[in-house]
Structures are given as structure tokens and as C-alpha cells.
Amino acid sequence: MRLDAPRLTDLELAGRRVLVRVDFNVPLSGGSITDDTRIRAALPTLRELLEAGATPVLLTHLGRPKGAVVEELRVDPVAARLGELLGSPVIKCDESVGDVAAAAIAAAPTGACVLMENVRFHPGETRGDAELSAAFAALGDSFVGDAFGAAHRDHSSVSGAARLLPSAAGHLLEAELGAFSRVLEEPERPLVAILGGAKVSDKLTVIENLLEKVDALIVGGGMAYTFLAARGVEVGSSLLEEDKFDLVRSCEARAAEVGTALMLPTDHVVASEFQEDAEAHVVESEEIPAGMLALDIGPATRDRFAELVRGAKTVVWNGPMGVFEWDAFSLGTRAVGEAVAACEGYTVVGGGDSVAALGKLGLRGAVSHVSTGGGASLELLEGKELPGVSALR
Ligand code: ADP
Ligand code: MG
């Protein structure tokens, strides 16, 4: 199965150096960490490795140093926070390959983790350079992939080193794969997908893949207007990608063929300009007046979408229903978020902005699985295999 990977228990851990690719790409402000969610997400794997008597050797990227040393992107603040959270020593190494790194690992006492410097200081990392992969692999006896947020990248520290060592998925990666497999492989039905966000071009492949699997596909957000316009509906000055009309029409045709309900907004919240303080008007029809742009789904659409979501047995949500960052245009996203939270079935939310919206609503705890990886979760929804997962096998 595409979403299967070897498990931690398949590896020999006691007394071994275990390379762990984590995603510690946390937001920083003035050198301090503003959100440590990603560090916390790795704790179960690290605790298990420490308890088993392994020496975890951690690899992560941080920001976009683009292949050069950037002082502000050194991982020292991450090492400090990880040490606090784990309550055990974290040794930070200023290199991530070579003799200095090997010596730091060899000198690490039992019970300590060793955190390597930002892997993206090496220009070869994002190219998946073979020599760099081998240099990472030389630091460990085995490899654990736990960076779901980077698992769609064919990078040296993600997939390259994994191919060279006995490998397994960590707990975070395993939980993510388990959640998406529950949605994509043998879901309890009805299965409803909600897609939104700004651009249809970002998510066409997701739409194409999900059409084949879901009972209903809800399309909201900016991308809905390309669908409506392709049907010949007037959408005023709403976000449009006219070069996608043909593809969108073939999605509609395919949906009809396989019997998937493709649901679009039938009323809207509009404004005359793309501004936070623009006056919001409800338009009670599919058509949007000239000069107006739709920035959220309307009240009738909210109710229709929410009802469908509440009655589903499995739900996956990616992409807000409107410009949720602005209060006047956030009601559609709120309604869908609340419906996902109220749904008694299995619910998965992925996508940076959708997860942020869920957080803003205080509903993160009310869904079955909140994905830690926007890009990686989209690729799973596209039906793609992740290099960071296939490399573990
Ligand atoms: P996610 O990160 O959850 O995958 P996207 O990045 O695809 O979501 O889309 C999020 C963005 O889409 C938000 O910034 C939101 O303001 C924007 N958006 C949603 N609806 C509209 C709309 N009707 N017009 C313009 N932008 C929209
Ligand atoms: Mg986004």
C-alpha cells in the first residue's frame, strides 16, 4: 500500500546511532521561537528512541538559507527548546556532516540527543545530492523519517539518506499516513471532501484525484469562481483563472460520469474591492453583479455545505471558504470549520491556512486529525507517493 512504511519497532535501537529527520522548521522572531508545535510533534518518537537506549541524531532544515550559512538560521534556539521539552540533554553540533559531526555523536552520553546544524546550509540538500546523502548516512546506523512536513521533498536528508540505511517511519509520520489512508484507502462512507483556497491551479490535481473517491466534493473559496464562470455564470470581478476553464469543465464531466456530487456556492458575500474594510454584501443568487467580487460563500451555501459535512462518516478539508483572515468574510470558513468539528465521523484537516483557521476558531481539538504538513498533505490528496515515505521501504 502506498501509505505503508516500516515501523520503529522494525529497527534495532539499543546502543545505535539513529538518524532522525524531523521537521523543526519553526517560526522565529528576533531569534526566538514563536510556535513550538513542530518540536512538540517529534517528542513521542524521540522519547521512544531514548527509552530504547538509542542516540538520536537529529536532522532538520530551518527557513530558506538557500545553500549557504545564514547566522540567523542556525538551529541553536531549537536545541534549547527541545532540551526544555524533553527534559534531557540536547547537544547542538555546528556542522551536519563530516568529522566534527561524527565526533560530537561519538562523544554524546547515553540519554542525550544530538541536533545537527541546519541541513539547508548545504547547497546539495534540496537537490538530493548523492554525496551529501552518503555523508548524512555515515552518521547513523539506521534512519527514522518523522518530518511529515518535508516528506514530499526528494532531499538528501529526507529521502537520500533513508535509501542508504535500514529505515522506518517515526510516530508523527505514521500518524499522518494512517490518517490519510483512512480517508483515501477504505473510507467509511459517505466521504465528503471540502476544497477551498485562492487558486484552482494549486489544487486541480487534488480535485481530479478526489473526484474518483469521494461521494461529494465541496468547492468553495476563490477557486469556486473559475468553476462557476466555466459554467457560464457571471462572477463579476471575482478571482478567475480563465486558462483553466477546459480542465475545470472536464472535472465537471468526470464528476457526472462517476456519480460524484460537485457542489459549488449558490450565494455569496461580495465587496466592491479586495480590502479588509470593504463593505460586505450578501448576494442571494449564483450570479455576481459586475464590479463586485466574491470574498466568501453566502448564508444559504454555508447551511448547505455544513449539513452535508455534518452527516458524513469521513471528511477531509483543505482550503478556506473565503478570505477568512478578514472578519467580514470569515463566516463561510467558520461554518465549515464548525461543521467539521461537529461531525461524528472521522475528520482530517490539512493545509496551512485551513489549520490556521481551525486554530483561530479554537476547534483544533475537535477534529480527528490535524495535519502538520500543508504541501505533503496536498500531495497525498493528489494520490502521489511521497519520496520521504517510499525511501523508507
Ligand atoms: P491552505 O493553506 O489551507 O491549503 P490556500 O493556501 O490554498 O489554503 O488558500 C488560502 C487563501 O485563500 C487564504 O489566504 C484566503 O484569503 C484565500 N481565499 C479564499 N477565498 C478567497 C476568495 N474568494 N477570493 C480571494 N482569496 C480567497
Ligand atoms: Mg496556504
Largest sheet: 6 strands, parallel
CATH superfamily of the largest domain: Phosphoglycerate kinase, N-terminal domain
Strand portion, in percent? 15-25%
**CATH-assigned fold name of the largest domain:** Rossmann fold
In DSSP terms (H or I, runs of 4 or more residues), the helix count works out at 15
Shape: elongated
CATH architecture of the largest domain: 3-Layer(aba) Sandwich
Strand order of the largest sheet: 5-6-4-1-7-8
Structural class: alpha/beta
What count of domains describes the coordinates?
A: 2
Structure explained in plain terms:
The chain contains 15 helices and 17 strands. The mean pLDDT is 97. It folds into two domains: 8-171, Rossmann fold; 178-381, Phosphoglycerate kinase, N-terminal domain (Rossmann fold, 3-Layer(aba) Sandwich). α11 runs parallel beside α12. β9, α8 (200-211) and β10 (216-219) form a beta-alpha-beta unit. It has 393 residues and is of the alpha/beta class. Bound molecules: adenosine-5'-diphosphate and magnesium ion.
Q: Which features would summarize this protein structure in a list?
A:
16% strand, binds magnesium ion, 393 residues, 17 strands, six-stranded parallel beta sheet, Rossmann fold, 15 helices, 2 domains, binds adenosine-5'-diphosphate, single chain, elongated, alpha/beta
